[in-house]
Amino acid sequence: MVMADRGHTVLTACDGKEVLLMLHERAKGRTQEQEAARAGMSVRTLRAYERVGQLPSQIKKPRTYWSRPDPFAEDWPWVIAELERDLALKSQTLFRLLCDRQPGRYQVSQLRTLQRHIAIWRAQFGPNREGIAPTYDRGDNNAGAQSAVGP
Predict the structure, then answer these.
(1) Helix/strand/coil percent split, the chain, to 5
(2) Distances, alpha carbon 21 to alpha carbons 15, 27, 28, 33, 62, in Å
(3) Which entry of 29, 45, 62, 140 is 20 to 30 Å from 85 by CA?
(4) What would the pLDDT profile of 113-146 be if each residue is shown by its tens digit?
């Protein structure tokens, strides 16, 4: 599927094998309409893939932005201090402590987010670092290296 976005063509996800097959069949002389119908895509989408000359996997760029504000940004220094004080603390325990500290601020659905942040912090700064985890620098932290990781 192709959507117009202020004069630019935006391609949505499509199977790369379908696009390769479509391009191969088009080289044999089949029309755009025939190939679009066979591939299950619109003629407009087919034309866009021909114009771009790339597979869907080559077009898609990784997301480099955060989709929503970090709920733990304000409390992250406290979380780091607790982890450094007692490395055996579990994410669930820290989440309960945060909920007790600020009732009503966090929801149970945010536990997984905290678990991911803590896992990244432990991979980079914990005692048993297995490897290097990705750094999530949101650009709005100026407190130092540890705050650039995680929330």
Answers:
(1) 50, 5, 45
(2) 10, 10, 11, 14, 25
(3) 140
(4) 999 999 999 998 887 765 555 555 555 544 444 4
List pLDDT tens digits, range 13-26: 466 788 888 888 88
Burial 29-47 (b: 16+ CB within 10 A, else e): eeeeeebbeebebeeebbe
- Nearest Cα to Cα of residue 78 among 55, 54, 106, 59: 106
Question: Which two structure tokens, joined as six digits, stand for 56?
Answer: 């869907």
Domain map of the chain by residue range?
2-59, 76-148
C-alpha distances out from residue 75 to 68, 69, 124, Å: 17, 13, 19
Mean pLDDT over each residue of the chain, to the nearest integer: 78
The reported pTM is 0.49
> Quick check: 26 and 53 in contact, CB under 8 A?
no
The residue type of 64 is: T
